[in-house]
Structures are given as C-alpha cells and as structure tokens.
C-alpha cells in the first residue's frame, strides 16, 4: 500500500489541475480515475430500486454503466453496496456475474473491465464509487489504496460539520474552518468547496477532526503546497 499522505497529495494535485466548472463530486472522481489509472467512474448512492441515484459520472461510458445497472438490477456497484466489499472481476467472471450488463457493454467496448468500491469512512456504506478501464489492461489496482481514497472522497463529498459542541464553540470552530478554507484556496488556487473537501479528506486520512486540521492550516503548520504529507518543510 502506498503511504496515505502520498496518496492524498496525488489526489490533491490532480484535483487542483482540473477546471472548476464541473461539480465537486465529478472532479474528485476524475482525479481518482487518474490516480488509479482508470478511464472514468461514477458515484452512486441510495440502493433501493426507487432510490438509487447517480451523483456524478465523469464520462458518457460511466453514465451508461450506471444506467444499465439500473435497468438490469445487476452489476458491480450493486454488488459492492450489498456486500460492503470491493468488486474486482476478470473478463470471464464479469460475463458470468452480470450477463445482461456485460452483453450490453461489450458490443461497443469488448475489453472493458469494471470495478466498484464502497464508500465506508465510518464502516457503514454511504455509496459506491464505480470505475472502469476500457482496454482491460494496465496495472492492477491496489485494493487498500483504492479503499482509502474512496473513503476520503466519501468524507469530502458527504461529510458534514459536527454540531454536537456548544454553540459558541461551534461558531469559533466555523471561523477557524472558514479561515483555513480561504488559506487553502490561496495555496492551490482552487474553489472554496474544493478546499473544504481537501480539509475533510486530510482529516480523515490522519485520524483528526476537521477543526484540528483547520488549526494546523491557520497556524501554518500545514501547507498543501509543500511535501506529500502537507507539512511545511517536509
């Protein structure tokens, strides 16, 4: 497994290079696809037949994969959600597990490989990130690296602010987070929502709270421009 700080730094660099016109979830999955050497992917949440929603899809192929899974009610995203484990299958296994889905896909993409990783930052499945590779080749995906990055994205996209503290502490913490967000915007020249997502992901990666990470940024102990782990002078 790659060092988690290095992984998060690679995701951060990819995200900073992507134009901010697209919604944050799509940009995060695009960055993830590049880090894991995939051709695209999607985030889906809600897995009852009438509730499943595609939050984002980075390409028309990714969108098509999710639409077909909705139609046939089979595929890697649904299996990953049901089992709470990653789904990585070879060509023969794909055809055996999801015959209708694969029959529809391989007509245009005969060598496509599908992957799915449940988002489980707190051990419960929040949703699924599905990925695909058109050529079926390339390096194998390190499952632990993929799980770490997907969980970090889950926190970045779906994470919320902890409101369990007394009101005055919450407002103080909000001020600190807002200040840190502005500093990350200046460091990386990215949108505020991207900066907040990175703060959340960094907190998850290092077992810290969002407020603690914000404090490190405000005190200039943490600079996302410097080093793989973000520590100034690293």
Brief rundown of the structure:
This protein is an alpha+beta fold and 234 residues long.
Description:
The chain is elongated and about 55 Å long. Helix 2 (24-35) runs antiparallel to helix 7 (143-158) and helix 7 (143-158) packs across helix 9 (192-205). A hairpin with a 7-residue loop joins strand 1 (40-45) and strand 2. It has 2 domains: 4-158, Beta-Lactamase (2-Layer Sandwich); 167-218, Orthogonal Bundle (Arc Repressor Mutant, subunit A). By secondary structure, it is α+β, with helices and mostly antiparallel strands. The protein has helices at residues 4-17, 24-35, 60-72, 76-83, 91-97, 99-106, 143-158, 167-188, 192-205, 210-218, and strands at 40-45, 53-57, 87-88, 113-119, 127-133. Residues 160-171 and 227-234 have low confidence and may be disordered. The protein starts with a helix and ends in a 16-residue tail after the last helix. Strands 2-1-5-4-3 form a 5-stranded antiparallel beta sheet, with helices on both faces.
């Amino acid at each position: 497994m790659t060092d988690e700080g290095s992984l998060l730094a690679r995701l951060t660099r990819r995200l900073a290079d992507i134009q901010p016109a697209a919604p944050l979830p799509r940009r995060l999955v695009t960055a993830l696809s590049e880090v894991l050497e995939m051709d695209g992917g999607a985030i889906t949440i809600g897995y009852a037949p009438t509730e499943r929603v595609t939050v984002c899809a980075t390409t028309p192929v990714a969108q098509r994969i999710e639409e077909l899974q909705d139609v046939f009610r089979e595929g890697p995203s649904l299996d990953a959600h049901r089992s709470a484990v990653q789904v990585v299958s070879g060509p023969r296994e794909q055809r055996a597990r999801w015959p209708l889905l694969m029959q529809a896909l391989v007509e245009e993409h005969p060598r496509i490989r599908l992957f799915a990783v449940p988002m489980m930052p707190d051990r419960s499945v929040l949703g699924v990130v599905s990925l695909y590779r058109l050529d079926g080749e390339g390096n194998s995906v390190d499952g632990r690296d993929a799980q770490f990055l997907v969980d970090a994205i889950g926190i970045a996209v779906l994470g919320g602010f902890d409101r369990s503290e007394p009101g005055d502490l919450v407002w103080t913490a909000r001020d600190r987070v807002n200040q840190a967000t502005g500093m990350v915007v200046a460091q990386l020249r990215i949108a505020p929502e991207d900066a907040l997502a990175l703060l959340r992901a960094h907190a998850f990666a290092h077992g810290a709270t969002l407020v603690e990470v914000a404090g490190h940024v405000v005190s200039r102990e943490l600079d996302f421009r410097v080093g793989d782990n973000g520590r100034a002078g690293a």
